[in-house]
Design a protein that fits this description.
Layout: H1 7-21, E1 30-35, E2 40-46, E3 51-57, H2 61-64, H3 73-89, E4 96-98, H4 107-117
Parallel strand pairs: 1-4
Antiparallel strand pairs: 1-2, 2-3
Length: about 120
């Protein structure tokens, strides 16, 4: 009997393939996005030292209080704005976008567009 791979397994394989090519440096760290069924998370990571420079998620009170739901496109766009503003405050202007194996549409695209509008370049 043929076993079909789950969406989660396929996403993880895509993410591993992407991570072989994408790496964050000190000059250009990696903006990593993860979304679960209920929340979204974004981190800016310097892979040379393995350190998270900036992070934001819809679990935080600052973000959760501003959005009605934490798992829709509007929440993702607001999270992109928050992560962009925090990065600019830390002096980060350019990043490499790591979509985490997720398809670049909907929530992931909204987060990326909002981060660009907040001042990040990628």
């Amino acid at each position: 009997m043929v076993r079909k791979e789950s969406r989660q397994e396929i996403r993880v394989k895509k993410h591993h393939r992407m991570r072989n090519r994408i790496s964050g440096t000190t000059q250009r760290p990696r903006l990593c996005v993860f979304r679960s069924n209920n929340h979204m998370y974004a981190q800016i990571i310097d892979d040379t030292v393995g350190q998270t420079l900036v992070s934001a998620s819809t679990l935080e009170e600052e973000v959760k209080g501003k959005v009605e739901k934490t798992n829709n496109v509007e929440a993702a766009a607001y999270l992109g704005t928050v992560i962009g503003k925090r990065a600019v405050e830390k002096g980060i202007k350019e990043v490499v976008f790591d979509r985490g194996g997720f398809i670049y549409q909907g929530k992931v695209a909204a987060l990326a567009d909002a981060a660009r509008e907040a001042g990040l370049e990628f």
